[in-house]
Amino acid sequence: MGLRMMxxxxxxxxxxxxxxxxxxxxxVALTLSMAGAPAxxxxxxxxxxxxxxxxxxxxxxxxxxxxxxxxxxxVIALDGSALPQGIVAAVGExxxxxxxxxxxxxxxxIEVASRTVGYIALGHGAKPRGLxxxxxxxxxxxxxxxxxxxxxxxxxxxVSRHSMPNGEIADLSGAVCTSGxxxxxTGYNGWVGKLDTATGKVTLLESVAGRGPAQMAMGPNGxxxxxxxxxxxxxxxxxxxxxxxxxxxxxxVEGPKGIVVDSGGRVWVSAFRSGRIARLDPRRRAxxxxxxxxxxxxxxxxxxSGGAVLVTDIGRDRLLRFDPATGSAAxxxxxSERGQARAMTRLDDQIWITETAADRxxxxxxxxxxxx
Length: 372
Hints:
A hairpin with a 3-residue loop joins strand 18 (182-187) and strand 19. Strands 7-6-28-27-26-25 form a six-stranded antiparallel sheet, with no helix packed on it. It contains no helices and 35 strands. It has strands at 5-8, 13-14, 23-24, 26-31, 35-37, 40-45, 60-61, 72-77, 84-90, 96-101, 106-111, 116-121, 131-133, 139-143, 148-153, 158-163, 172-177, 182-187, 191-196, 202-206, 213-218, 224-228, 233-237, 244-248, 256-261, 267-271, 276-281, 286-291, 298-303, 309-313, 318-323, 328-334, 341-347, 350-355, 360-365.
């Protein structure tokens, strides 16, 4: 594929009226029971080329699931008017969890201490999806409908917009921010890009995986990874040059959705269509994969404080914890029936999950013991 690159500078357009409404969240505490799910392991070498799938490997049963102490779940209802999708946590004097609220054309904020919910309006017609927070304290919110990245200053509630070069319809999807305040993002229509927050310059480059780039994650070495659902690949991306290298998913492991990179640089991917969790070791170019159980449809992934992999299973409506050391999966908490838990972020031992269809945010405190 011949790659095209386009650049554009920020149009500096300020968003219309900025509104912030504070309202008390509906909070429900639930004591949960645990259920274990045995995993099945698969190992294979990664295909050095992205042009074909890695060779298949036989399945073998993993060890039985280990027990995990239950957490305490807090349900933060959004009054049926937000449709939350992306979510990111911000630490500091007043820790806050931010989420995109497409139905409100806004970005939402949950104060961690008080559980109060407020909104900052992004302007008429805005339909935010993914978002990220940079070290400069600002939020960068992807809007595939208006084809812009909203820059939000939480301190002043001022909003400006960064347009795509030449009006290219990128279908903006996922984003991460580097330590140097460079916003790197994907467009599902087959694009990767970066926004230089200092200059407002936006650069777009065609994805080597073609159509389908979505969720992103940053590794410990500063390189970025993204999942391409349509191409059934994961791609390593240099944030400065936008140079890309694609890795095909192994045969029989299909539909990469969520992605996260552990402290050792190994890439964890949820295989939505196959009901598996997969791990790529880039140094060895080798994959491992484990079945999560009949009916599983894994989506968002994150790492807990101990390095275990957390997975939202929207096929069986539960949050799973997968232990790489034992190859076992256990149920941590129930999710809403068909709630579409598509995004997740971690703040210490707190796991925050958006349930788009249920119009709510879940807080799961893995360190808390439920009261009896």
